[in-house]
TrEMBL record:
Name of this chain's protein: Iron complex transport system substrate-binding protein
Lineage: Bacteria, Bacillati, Actinomycetota, Actinomycetes, Pseudonocardiales
GO cellular component: outer membrane-bounded periplasmic space
InterPro entries per record: ABC_transptr_periplasmic_BD, Bact_iron-sidero_bind, TAT_signal
Localization: Cell envelope
Keyword annotations of the record: Signal, Transport
Residues making up the signal peptide according to the UniProt record: 1-27
Pfam families membership: Peripla_BP_2
Biased composition (Low complexity): 33-47
GO process terms (BP): iron coordination entity transport
Record region (Disordered): 33-53
SUPFAM superfamilies attached to this UniProt entry: Helical backbone' metal receptor
Amino acid sequence: MTIFRSPVTRRRFLGVAAGTAATAALAACTNSANTGDDGNTGDAGATPFDFTDDRNERVQLPSTPGNIVMYAGSAAALWEYGIRPAALFGPQRLGDGTPDPQVGRVDLDSAVDLGNAFNEFDVPRYIKTQPDLLVSMVVNNQQGLWYVPEDSADEIMKQAPSAGIMMVQKNASAVIERYEQLAKALGADIEAPGITKARGDFEKATARLADVAKSKNGLRVLAVSGTAETPYLGNPLAHASLRYLHEAGVPIMNVGDQPETQTWAPDITWEQINKYPADVILHDVRTQSLTLDQLKEIDVFNQLPSVQAGALIPWRTENPYSYHSYAQIAGEVADGLERAKAGIA
């Protein structure tokens, strides 16, 4: 599908609701022209925009979008290339007010907040931003965009063209590459010094991870999330974060041989988790999952040999899809695997 739009000017918010605090924030958050290592080297609007997203929808605009509204995770990925959001929606801050890990290095004070939680999207404020482009993620091959509420999607989607990047059923490195392609379409210099260094660091970290994984013959790794009632065992073919580790050679168990379209193994109880012996546990660190301390309060989990041995590695499934972020993840997992011993379970 190709979406064509009439000429779009670089909209500034200073003339919208002048005198309000929201307007001041909006005016400051347009996609500014930056130079330097982050890769953004030209004025927004200087060249045409042409991008086909992961829904196979093509957006063509006569000028580069200036006011870009982004899902928090998308903003974290594009921030590394100097692409700045005018407004954000989706997880930005934790309950204590600190930045959510999903937003990476995004300056939250520089963008308008349209909503922090699922199904929380301030449509009137979004319209007031006069967006040129909406960017979010796509899950399960659906046409809808992540964190865009279904009940207001029609009103939201008619305000501006949109771009969606698939975040499941592919390697995280492929997701990073897609964001890089989008950043390039938005005017970023993807060969800027800072970008090439981050890419090189990521490649070195991935190579080290692969070497460490290869050296650990017979190791068994289990990805675990859960609530107080139910454990969830991650499918390494479905989650981009796990697929990245899996394709680097980390032997993550696919319980029940699930296809890539199945995010989790069939439901089990905590009393059944010891049926899947693992030498290492990757534990989900998302806010909706139990913390490691809470998991250890579940006796059957705490008694697992891998837990008793301290063979526990954070599973950072929602950290930004960026070279910088995944270089850190690769290093952390490699460090954990180096300490692990096969056959303890």
